[in-house]
């Protein structure tokens, strides 16, 4: 909901990606009310810029930067990857992103989601009543050809499936029309929480699809095969 969460609240993903030969960086952004659009997405852009500038100091390759986020984070990674102004303000461009994975958000077209004017609309609460602001915060509104939008793999869970499917399909259709390599994959057996908690666990369909997608775009480095002798990290080690 753009109003709670913390980068230390991690499940299996860090240990999984470390085991695949990646460095894993978890980022925070300002939460509501101080994180009102565009402050939250600006924070994401600044974090990306920092990683691009400094990850080599930790043994990482700044030319191999993949981005994913869940829920509100999925909205923000989709937005930072389609509205180039945010990375530009941080001194970077969309070219620093190899590919992006939005993991289960409904918020691609926010004006559509605020048509329900009733109390309790989380999108109106997060972005306010101004249609101009709502559109500016919508990833779909920024999809145009020729700006270098990175490839995207879009997932949605079985939570609110009708709306998520409609929003995700519209976003992916716009990306394809703009010449962006993209795909929408529904995870019908997982709810909104499960699709995140189970990411990076053995046999998870979302994880397998994501790694296949990442391998397609990762260049200049070999992804290490996971070793069965490596114990699964505990939650404390992962975070």
| Uncertain residue segments | 222-239
Instruction: Give the helix level as a range of percent.
Output: 25-40%
Number of strands: 4
Q: Can you count the helices?
A: 11
Radius of gyration: 17 Å
Which strand-content bin applies to the residues? 5-15%
Mean pLDDT: 90
* N-C termini distance: 22 Å
Order of helices and strands: HHEHHEHHHEHEHHH
Order of strands, main sheet, comes to 1-2-3-4
Q: Main beta sheet, described? A: 4 strands, parallel
Shape: globular
Decide which structural class fits the backbone. Answer: alpha/beta
Topology:
Blueprint: H1 13-19, H2 39-54, E1 66-70, H3 72-82, H4 85-89, E2 99-103, H5 110-113, H6 122-127, H7 131-136, E3 152-156, H8 161-177, E4 182-186, H9 194-197, H10 205-217, H11 235-238
Parallel strand pairs: 1-2, 2-3, 3-4
